[in-house]
């Protein structure tokens, strides 16, 4: 990871990350609530120290921010270069769920994550 971090720093470029939630939900439907993945959970689902998470997207992205901090790159920006939801082929794969995910993702990224609140997520 260090060489990639160094290139991003040198070029003043964000680290590109793919964040797919659908696969995490279908791989473990007993542990991952669909509402958490679709940005529709009305309350905090996971508490990690001072950070509370209502959605899986923020939890995954903040895990990457935390890893970058430990790797010595606390100010490196992340750009979500790809995300998505399957519209067929699995338990939660449905056009309606895909539409919900995309609409809510577009609205959500403006506010940032709990770890980087108020900082829009380049997506």
From TrEMBL:
Gene3D superfamilies on file: Glycosidases (3.20.20.80)
Q: What is its EC number?
A: 3.2.1.39
Q: Which Pfam families match?
A: Glyco_hydro_17 (PF00332)
Q: Name one GO biological process term.
A: carbohydrate metabolic process
Arranged from A to Z, the UniProt key words for this protein are: Glycosidase, Hydrolase
Which InterPro entries does the record associate with it? GH (IPR017853), Glyco_hydro_17 (IPR000490), Glyco_hydro_17_plant (IPR044965)
Q: What class of enzyme is it?
A: hydrolase
Signal peptide span: none
GO molecular function terms attached to this record? glucan endo-1,3-beta-D-glucosidase activity
- Per the record, what are the reactions this protein catalyses? Hydrolysis of (1->3)-beta-D-glucosidic linkages in (1->3)-beta-D-glucans
Please report which protein family the annotation says this sequence is part of: Belongs to the glycosyl hydrolase 17 family.
Q: Write down what this protein is called.
A: glucan endo-1,3-beta-D-glucosidase
């Amino acid at each position: 990871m260090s060489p990639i971090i160094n290139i991003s720093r040198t070029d003043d470029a964000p680290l590109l990350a793919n964040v797919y939630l659908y696969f995490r939900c279908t791989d473990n439907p007993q542990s991952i609530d669909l509402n958490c993945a679709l940005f529709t959970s009305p309350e905090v689902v996971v508490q990690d120290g001072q950070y509370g998470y209502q959605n899986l997207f923020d939890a995954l992205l903040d895990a990457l921010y935390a890893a970058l901090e430990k790797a010595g790159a606390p100010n490196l920006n992340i750009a979500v270069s790809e995300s998505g939801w399957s519209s067929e082929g699995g338990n939660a794969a449905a056009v309606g769920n895909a539409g919900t995910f995309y609409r809510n993702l577009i609205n959500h990224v403006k506010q940032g994550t709990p770890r980087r609140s108020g900082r829009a997520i380049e997506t």
